[in-house]
Structure formats: C-alpha cells, structure tokens
C-alpha cells in the first residue's frame, strides 16, 4: 500500500542509473545447432566493454574466452553473428572481421583470409569435410557508400578461400540450402529500396564439386522492386520453401513448391497481422518449422505478439495461449518444441522453450533469464503499458501509443496533480515500441513520471498501409502524430501539458528536433540521441545500407538534385534551428557511422550562436547507441538531471 504522498516526478526510486548499467545486459540473438539440439544465445554485455558473448544456453556457459567479441558490422546494424553444426561453432569476430570456427575448448581457428575491409554475416553451413559455408560479404575496400560492395560468397574453410557465389544486386540476405543440398535460396534487393520496401526471392540449383560451390538455373520466384517485399526463406522440405511476403498489405507467410514452380499463401485467407518486423538486422527468425506439415509462427497484432500453429496442408491457423508480449527468434528444436526470446510486461527478454502437448495446449519453460535478484527490480514496482489508439482528424486515421502511468508502491501523487511526462519517439523510423518490460522506462515511472511510446504512422506491426503513411512524409506525419498524442493525452489528464519532455534516438532523434522546430509545439524540453539535424548531409555521408532510404522517406528522386536541395532544406531541423526555444540535451557517439557526430555538432553550434540553452555530451568510442556500462549510466543520470532542472522538480 502506498504510504507517502509526494509530487509527481519527485518520488525516490530504488532504480538508479548505476543499477540500469549493471542490468543492461540483453539477449540479442538466438540460434540452434540442429544436429545436436544445442541452443545458443548472444549477450550484449556493457559490463565487459560492450562485447557480444556467445553463450551455450543448454549448458549455461560462455563458449569463448572474454577477449572474443562476436559481432558483425554488415549494414552497420549487424545481426546474428554465428551458426553451429555438429558441435562446431562458426562466428564473426568484431576485432578483425574474420570468420572463425571453434570446437570444444580448442582455440578458435580463422577460416577467412586477413582483410579488415571484409565483413561477414548470415553464415550458412553447406557441408563439413571439406567445410563449405555461404555468407553475405560486405566489402569496404573502397569505403564510400556508393563503392561498398555486397555479395554472397562461398567460404572454403581449410584453404581460407572466399569466392563469389552471387553478385550484381545491391544487397543480399538469408542464404538457405535445402535439406538434400540440391537447391539454394536467398533474398536480394536494389538501391534505393530497403528490404521491406521491395525485394526479390531467388531460387537456384546448388552445384557442389569437391571444395567449390556455385548456383545454376537462377530465377526470381517472388517479390518486386519498390512494391512487394519478401523475407526469411526457409526450407520445410526439399520441395517446399517457406517465406514471407507483404503483397496482401500485411507480412504474411507463403510457400513456394519447387516441383510446381508456384507460390501460394500458407493460410486460406490473408491474416491482418505482420509475421515479421522490418529487417534491420540479419538472421532473424519468426517461424519454427516443426515438421514438413506443422510450423509455429510469431506475429504482431495490435502491438502484441501472437504465437500460432499453422498446418501447411490444410492452411489452418490456431492461435496459442501465451503470456509473452514480445516474441523474437523463434526456432524449432524438435517436432514438438521451439525456442524463442520472449518478454512479458513484467519480465525482461529471456530464452524460452515452448512445447506443444497432445491436447493442443502449450507449456513454457525458461532456459535462460537475465532477471536480476536485486530487490530494487521487483515486479511490484513495474508500471505496465496501456495500449491506446488515438484518432487523427480529419480522416480519423489511427495513431497508436503505449501509455505507462507513474507507479511506485511507496508513493501516491498529490491530489489533483497531473504527472509530468516523457514522450519517447522510436527510431527506424520504421521501428516499433513494444510492451515488453524495459527497466529504463521504469526508471522514470517509479519516480512519478508518465512515459508514452508513440508508434506514429510509419511504425511497423500495423500493416503496410500504416507504415507507408510515412512514405514521402518523414518530418511531417511523425511530428504531427507525436504532437497529437500529447494533445489528446493531456486533454484526458493523463499527462501535464506544462511539463512534457520529448526524447528519441537516431530517426527518433530527428523527429525530436523536427518537432521542436515546429510552430506551437507543446514540449518544454527535449533530448536527441544521435539524431539527424541536416538531411542533405545525411544523404551525403550515411552508410550504404540506408543510402537510398532517405529519398523515399522525404519523397524525392535521388537523381533530382534540385528537388533534393529544396525538400531537405524544408525538412531539416538545422534550417529552422532558430525556432528551438526549449532546453535541448544532445547525446552522441564519436564513432557513429550511421549518424556521424557532425549532425549533432551542427545543431549544437546553431543553438549556441543565438545563446540558446543546449548541452552536448560526446561519448568517446561509442557508435550508434551506448554499449559501455559507464556511458549508459552517465546518459540516464544526465537526462534525468536535465529535466529535473528544467521543470524545477526539487526533492
């Protein structure tokens, strides 16, 4: 029972920034050795300098020594850095970019040549003895984005030889080999598309000769540049290839039958659920192929995870009961079981095993949890997300938000007072805020703040039409939806309109800056973490993966310089920086290749020239986000102190 009355925003919380930095280890990725059933996960560990550690989930132990950082830099955002077969681990090393193999306690052995300009991802083992792998190779020999080359390659381990397998497209992902090793499939796409905007599914014969491999009879079987995306091809049998396609308006599963050269939907009717999020990272898995007939799928509906069982013969879909609001990296481990990374409203992401029972029900078992035993991080202090769908005039288009009320079992607010609020704008901009437990949000709610995640038009998880609202309208729809959320939530007295801060990172940081330069904007303070200030310079200097993304977001032809100059000037916060009149905190990593530090410095310099109130912190050695514990701690402490000062929240 609450025992103290105190103004919102002044409550004492057991969740400190120091504690956040200690419990900020997260489970990023999951993969399975299908030959022996061993489950592995990858942990990002701020306490160990931000390295990514591969852990054998089954045996609860690290696979490699602490000097190994298993990461891939392909697309800058990376993805699953490893795979395993017959007890042998194959992984990408962040220190020298090479691929290594490791078995047991033996010292890992490099299987690719020395070349720090080559980055590898999507490792796929074709065979062992001799060992052959397929992989995505990103070649940065010429580092300018237009000169970076992506291709599929074959890796011959013994000779450390890398040879081209497929090239000519601008990007590649998801190489996958049929069980009989006679077929191969992959995803490819072209500039200026992102993979969720338009991509192609390719199927070819796989020709293996000794220690070499090549494709033959290559053909595109699904997808279309600019209009239809495809994703996550995986073989259910030698004749059936499962994949995802969004031609229905939602990302739905399809199956391609090799012998018929035809694709059909897995379900009888289109399902208004997205069965995958945009492919920002490589190697994701949102399906578990249990048998050639039965497949588990994870999808998103109304912002929450759905787990369902599909029958490929009948086209049936049976939704299964699950307490998990977030399900990622769903992978089969037996004909009746699968593993995934699952989070609940009051439980952070953990490795979960789901087992189907004979009566059709499902049981869940936690294989690995990072939940802290610290009593400060008790479920009793958790504020749970309340999904709210707002309506935007004049067309009454929906705007989705997650509202977290202030909550601390030891406090109540002053009668009649409305809480201050932090409005969070996610990145991407085709990202998605989910309702899984995030202790960083509880850092605020346990102090008496309300927290609002805005899934503005353009967010994923609500179908392509909702996501395409942002197409050509970045800096407009996201800004309008964020302001609308504040106005409507304030009108219902869920947040105090005089004490509202806006925050966001990357594309969310851009929306923060763009919103603060808008007339009649409602915010009184802001924080932009590695946000974009100058769209023209972003187009000139960002990395290859997103080098064409900007033009579709702002609706210009990448070859029309006049249109580029006009629209980037109109949409760039830097152009209107003189309209930023509220205190602004800027956080930036010194080694950010996605949004370079110049972007932060441009807006800081502009505000300082007119004696505006701005604070700038540059985190040395950090990239696009914070990986080191000391920087995570400093970032949260600084932001909290910034708002407390601005809103005069004395304790």
TrEMBL record:
Pfam families cross-referenced by the UniProt entry: Peptidase_S9 (PF00326)
BP GO terms, sorted: proteolysis
InterPro entries per record: AB_hydrolase_fold (IPR029058), Peptidase_S9_cat (IPR001375), Xaa-Pro_dipeptidyl-ppase/CocE (IPR050585)
Annotated GO MF terms: serine-type peptidase activity
Domain Peptidase S9 prolyl oligopeptidase catalytic positions: 437-648
The name this protein goes by in its record: Peptidase S9 prolyl oligopeptidase catalytic domain-containing protein
Organism: Sphaerobolus stellatus (strain SS14)
């Amino acid at each position: 029972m609450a025992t103290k009355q105190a103004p919102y925003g002044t409550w004492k919380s057991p969740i400190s920034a120091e504690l956040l930095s200690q419990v900020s280890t997260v489970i990023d990725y999951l993969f399975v050795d299908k030959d022996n059933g061993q489950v592995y996960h990858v942990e990002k560990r701020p306490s160990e300098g931000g390295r990514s550690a591969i852990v054998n989930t089954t045996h609860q132990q690290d696979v490699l020594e602490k000097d190994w950082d298993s990461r891939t830099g392909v697309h800058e955002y990376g993805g699953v850095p490893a795979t395993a077969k017959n007890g042998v681990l194959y992984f990408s090393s962040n220190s020298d970019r090479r691929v290594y193999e490791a078995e047991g306690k033996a010292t890992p052995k490099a299987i690719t040549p020395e070349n720090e300009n080559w980055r590898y991802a999507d490792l796929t083992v074709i065979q062992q003895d001799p060992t052959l792998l397929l992989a995505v190779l990103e070649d940065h020999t010429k580092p300018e984005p237009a000169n970076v080359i992506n291709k599929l390659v074959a890796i011959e381990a013994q000779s450390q030889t890398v040879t081209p397998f497929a090239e000519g497209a601008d990007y590649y992902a998801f190489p996958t080999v049929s069980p009989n090793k006679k077929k191969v499939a992959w995803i490819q796409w072209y500039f200026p598309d992102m993979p969720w905007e338009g991509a192609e599914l390719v199927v070819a014969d796989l020709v293996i000769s000794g220690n070499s491999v090549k494709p033959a009879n290559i053909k595109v079987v699904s997808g279309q540049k600019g209009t239809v995306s495809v994703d996550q091809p995986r073989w259910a049998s030698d004749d059936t290839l499962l994949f995802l396609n969004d031609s229905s308006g939602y990302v739905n599963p399809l199956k391609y039958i090799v012998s018929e050269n035809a694709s059909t939907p897995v379900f009888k009717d289109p399902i208004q659920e997205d069965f995958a999020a945009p492919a920002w990272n490589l190697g994701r898995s949102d399906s578990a192929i249990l048998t050639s007939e039965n497949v588990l799928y994870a999808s998103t509906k109304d912002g929450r995870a759905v787990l369902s069982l599909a029958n490929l013969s009948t086209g049936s879909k049976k939704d299964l009961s699950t307490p998990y609001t977030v399900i990622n990296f769903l992978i089969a481990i037996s004909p009746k079981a699968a593993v995934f990374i699952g989070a609940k409203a009051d439980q952070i992401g953990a490795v979960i095993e789901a087992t189907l029972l004979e009566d059709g029900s499902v049981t869940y078992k936690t294989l690995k949890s990072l939940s802290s035993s610290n009593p400060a991080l008790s479920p009793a202090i958790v504020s749970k997300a309340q999904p709210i769908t707002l309506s935007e005039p004049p067309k009454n288009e929906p705007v989705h938000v997650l509202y977290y009320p202030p909550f601390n079992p030891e406090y109540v607010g002053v009668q009649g007072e409305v809480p201050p609020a932090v409005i969070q704008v996610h990145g991407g901009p085709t990202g998605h805020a989910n309702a899984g437990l995030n202790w960083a949000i509880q850092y605020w709610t346990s102090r008496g703040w309300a927290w609002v995640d805005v899934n503005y038009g353009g967010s994923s998880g609500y179908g392509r039409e909702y996501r395409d609202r942002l197409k050509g309208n970045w800096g407009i729809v996201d800004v309008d939806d964020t302001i609308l959320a504040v106005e409507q939530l304030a009108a219902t007295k869920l947040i105090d309109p005089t004490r509202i801060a806006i925050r966001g990172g990357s594309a969310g940081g851009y929306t923060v800056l763009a919103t603060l330069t808008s007339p009649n904007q409602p915010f009184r303070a802001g924080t932009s973490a590695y946000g974009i200030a100058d769209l023209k310079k972003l187009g000139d200097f960002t990395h290859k993966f997103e080098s064409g993304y900007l033009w579709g977001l702002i609706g210009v032809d990448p070859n029309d310089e006049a249109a580029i100059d006009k629209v980037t000037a109109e949409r760039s916060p830097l152009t209107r920086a003189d309209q930023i009149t509220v205190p602004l905190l800027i956080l930036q990593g010194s080694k950010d290749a996605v949004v370079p530090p110049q972007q932060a410095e441009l807006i800081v310099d502009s505000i300082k020239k007119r004696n505006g109130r701005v604070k700038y912190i540059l985190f040395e050695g950090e990239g696009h986000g914070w990986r080191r514990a000391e920087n995570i701690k400093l970032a949260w402490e600084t932001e909290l102190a910034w708002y407390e000062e601005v809103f005069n929240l004395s304790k």
